[in-house]
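Helicase ATP-binding domain-containing protein (Paralvinella palmiformis), 470 aa
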Amino acid sequence: MGQVKFGSTCPTGQVDLKNVPIEIPETFMFPFEPYDIQKGFMEHLYKALELGKIGIFESPTGTGKSLSIICGALRWLKDHVERQQKALEELMSIENLKSEGIKEELKSEPDWIQDFAKKQGIDEKAKQLKEEQEARKKLEEKLKEVRTHKPNNKRKRNVLDEAFEELFKDAPSDLKKQLAAELKEVQSDGQPEDEDIVLDEYFSDEESMRKDGESDDEDLSEVHITKIYYCSRTHSQLSQFVREIQKSPYSNDTPVISLGSRQNMCINEEVKKLNSLSLINDRCLEMQKNKDKKPKGGEAKRKKSSGNCPFNKQDPILRLKDATLAEIGDIEELVKRGKQMKACPYYATRHAIPAAELVALPYNTLLHKATRESCGIKLKGNVVIIDEAHNLIETIGNIYSVEVSGSQLTCAYSQLSQYQDRYRNRLKAKNLMYIKQLLFLLSTFIKCLGGRFSYVSHFIFIFFYPDKYM
Ligand code: SF4
């Protein structure tokens, strides 16, 4: 085995983790007796997390890095939750004593002053901890329910299969095959086909989405429990990591979700066949705008089925969210499950973020601010693990870079100039100013690339020297 290097830093300087006195667990629930290099990795990771520091870990390929990350980080998370619970109990008892004291002191004061003073006495930290603990409790109950209902479905399927065999035992094999396929389709849908048709006539999804604030589910999703964001460069690396979690002892009690782009997670074949991330994003968002428009009279059903995505319905999405939290799956498995439950995995996983303890996501989703915010990812108070971090600088460069060719600049300059000439008198002064600014920028870029401007009457000619043309 090679050597592993550890280091940890914080805004105030470098820390040698070896000398920091932190209580380290005896065991990390590693699936087998860990080598020294793995044990060292987990211990240092645990210390860095406990101290809230930035840790930089370097370990050669084949040293069980992923499993060490999983066991080190998840062990810390489980211990952290326990410590939170204890802290909450202590804070609550202090709070009770405090309010008793306040009560005594304020006995002579009018009621409204007593109420106000009591409210002021509520410790913000205790409130936060309490919210998180309640969210965890609700989640655990829900996942238990989802997990215990699963075998029943299987049993139901077996009964159906047996009845089918008995009923069609003498039928011709072609007919039997066809019927079996139909039965399988109905079973995998999890609900009868016509139910979807009936739901199509209702435009209540967005109404109920709005009402979500009142439901338990939304209460749960509003509280973000402490979590680990694990981020890697490619989807295959993320899938590999998720498969390692599945094999680990933490697989049974850790809600894990994988995030991916619409291109990887969309199950609407009409949209997916557009085959380009930006086109898929645009089409999906366009369909949501259609969904938000109020249908008029007889047009209702036609518009619903033609303009909206049939997989973007609240109930199936929430069911898929629960199933995703209850059973760990990589993106391929999520897509498969989404198809079976007729629910969009892209939106189901986004709904699941607040309740997940581990979120596996690609670099772009974490590092691009707008994407991060649109997904509802909150980094404050959470752990971020960046795997293969040597790719980080290049990825950040790619995310915030765009390539524009000389011909695109020329085209933009020409069209904007024509627009300005034609509407000059109708444009507001401010807009005209912005257009001029854009034209100035475009002309500067063009000149930078070696372009020359030539004006003849109303026409502008732009020439590029061949060796500088891009
Ligand atoms: S809602 Fe989901 S399935 Fe439908 S188009 Fe958007 S990404 Fe695809």
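Residues 1-122 form one domain. Residues 262, 266-268, 271, 284, 287, 309, 311-312, 344, 346-347 surround iron/sulfur cluster (CB under 6 Å). ok done for today
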